[in-house]
Protein 1
Amino acid sequence: MMNFAIISKGDEVSARLEKRIKTYLLDFDLIWDEKNPDIVISIGGDGTLLHAFHHYIHRVDRTAFVGVHTGHLGFYADWTPEEVEKLVIHIAKTPFQIIEYPLLEVTVRYLDDRMESKYLAMNECTVKSVEGSLVMDVEIKGEHFETFRGDGLCLATPSGSTAYNKALGGAIIHPSLPSIQLAEMASINNRVFRTVGSPLVLPQHHTCLLNPVNDVDFHITIDHLFLLHEKVKSIQCRVAEEKVRFARFRPFPFWKRVKESFV
Ligand code: NAD
């Protein structure tokens, strides 16, 4: 028996669709279980799927996601409302195929004796200073790489490479490559300050460590979540052990989604 849950954006169109899908799936004898779902259907957009992912992050290894978009085509939300009957039948006649995408693991450590904070991001983590330029020593695999000065830094997953990372001139990375991408936000480059200037793609186990140079308070985002972290000692980013799982019912290749969204 399969348990399901639905997370909806909350607008009228999404709410109506949610009701319909729920009725269909109950008719197919699936079990409505918001606590322990095997499959989570997100209705809305990519933002809704990001919410769904973070809502069920504690059982990420046991939950499969599928996204319906009620607005424009999403990267995670790639089913249209017109297709829901087809989708429901697919879901009901399990087992379905699962595809896994890499995640970014972020560990924030503090100067006082607070416990470290650990996060998983599906899109990216960004770091900005609270006021003035961000100054960070960037360490890669234990070696000092550069001292960054500028607006901020963005570390993205492959599936998040089409989001904020893309706006920063980062490359689009296929989600079959377990990697993270470091992109700069408006770095200061002159005779005093120097950064590499290109986005960097790091493989598994090449940990990127950000060490504060003077200020120790930062605005850190994890996907849509925005948090102020005070007295930060370091921010560690690497490819996570955990992966996000998507239920796949039909081929919709990544490059096709890229083309349909951007070209
Ligand atoms: P939002 O409402 O500001 O929407 C951001 C847009 O990004 C939406 O159009 C959404 O469909 C799109 N998006 C989200 N994930 C994507 C992905 N993996 N690939 C391609 N497009 C994607 O914010 P939200 O819906 O809460 O989403 C949060 C995300 O917004 C963040 O994870 C970040 O990637 C993105 N963002 C982008 C910029 C930028 O491009 N300059 C700035 C801030 C945040």
Protein 2
Amino acid sequence: MEKQTIVSGIRASGSLHVGNYLGALKQFVELQNQGHHCYFFIADLHGLTTPFEPKKLSKDTLDVAATYLAAGIDPKKSVFFLQNHILEHATLAWIFNCLLPLSELERMTQYKDKAKQHKENINAGLLTYPALMAADILMYKPTAVPVGEDQVQHVELARVVARKFNHKFGKTFPEPHTFLRKPLRIMSLSDPAKKMSKTGDEALLLDDEPKEISRKLKKAVTASESGKASAGVENLFLLLEHFGKQEQIAYFRDAQRNNSLKFSELKETLAKEVAGYFAEFRAQKKALLEQPEYLAEILGEGARKARTVAQSTLQEIKHRIGLL
Ligand code: TRP
């Protein structure tokens, strides 16, 4: 693949589970290690659009930063920073706000969903969220933007903004491609009919200690409904495919075919593999969180790199639109 310039924002919302890891983080690390030019940032300004608590916001931000670094984001290879550190994002978002028709913003699915969810706080930021996201993206003139399904509409809108701007003020932005992350169906351990989310014992969190992983897997639902192959068991196999070894999968699939599959054995093996897979991650993350000054230094260095590009893009844009 030709070298791409890649931009993506990360929501800071506390602990991640193995589904989040496989669906996003792992792919970021792979893109980085393939040598693409990557900008990854924590979208803390977007975090203000839904109700938040200041202490928790700072804590979650540091936690997510440590998570991404511990999982393999290398600040020497990727530009890794906090959105709020680059003031240019907010300025460009304002410029895009003045370019985007209200009607385009009002028909965004996420806005409609969140407005319904947070009836007591339908703030203007919730509506103009995609203008800030378009600014995040176009600032770095990327060729590709990896996002989950729920963000595709916003990347589309960023393309519309790019087109509009280019048409009105002259060619400035390339239209970035959406780079859809594979929708992975990692299901809840306690209710395999729904996707894994972060609540209770249904999720394996990246931070879980081996004991906790074993405990949750032991409780994982394996019962089949009305003779159908059990979704819970298939989910365990799916996890083993990602975190286990080929011969383990072959061994348990064989047992399944011979009707001699022991769920407890499958769960024990899986627990061991998941715990081992994230052992290094847990140690790294702990070490990072114990050195907040070092974390701040990494984020500061990332911001310096991002700022150089952002300042130059904003300069070009101001010139195009006649801002002195
Ligand atoms: N809105 C994205 C999400 O909720 C996060 C995000 C903010 C983002 N700015 C971005 C993603 C720019 C890609 C590009 O996940």
